[in-house]
Amino acid sequence: MFWEKHFWVVKTDHSHEGRGKATIKVELCVIESGNKVSQRLGTDESVERVFVQEKTYMYMCTDCNGTIVLMDVKTFDQLEVSQELFGKDAKYLQGE
Q1: Alpha-carbon distance 96 to 37, whole Å?
Q2: What is the pLDDT of residues 51-84, one digit of tens each?
Q3: Residue 56 phi/psi, 5° resolution?
Q4: What are the Cα distances from residue 72, in Å, to 1, 5, 61, 85?
Q5: Backbone angles phi, psi at 89, to 5 degrees
């Protein structure tokens, strides 16, 4: 389902046209894939806010599918993220 994904809000635009209800146009970036989508929300709709925690990760490798493998330097847990999340900067990632 659309709202079961995590998004990063890129841009918002509030509009009120005539006697109609006000709407908010939101440009979103899907965190998992990096794809951008636009969505219109009514002013009475709500979204769940997710709080982000900053952590230090070490670059391990990039697989043939473009998935980047990172390792948490404190717990040694590995995290796989899309190369698109880093954009053009992905080519500058180096081990340690």
Answers
A1: 34
A2: 878 888 888 888 888 888 889 989 999 999 888 8
A3: -100, 130
A4: 30, 23, 13, 17
A5: -75, -10
pTM for the whole thing?
Answer: 0.48
Starting from the edge strand earliest in sequence, which strands make up the sheet with 78-82, in order?
A: 57-62, 67-72, 78-82
Length of the chain: 96
Query: What's the token pair of residue 84?
Result: 């698109």
Instruction: Please name the residue ranges forming H helices in the chain.
Output: none
* Token pair recorded at residue 3: 């709202």
Fold of 2-42: SH3 type barrels. (2.30.30)
- Cα separation, 48 vs 17, whole angstroms: 26
The SS3 call for residue 90 is helix
Query: Do the beta carbons of residue 49 and residue 7 sit within 8 Å?
Result: no
Domain ranges of the chain: 2-42, 57-92
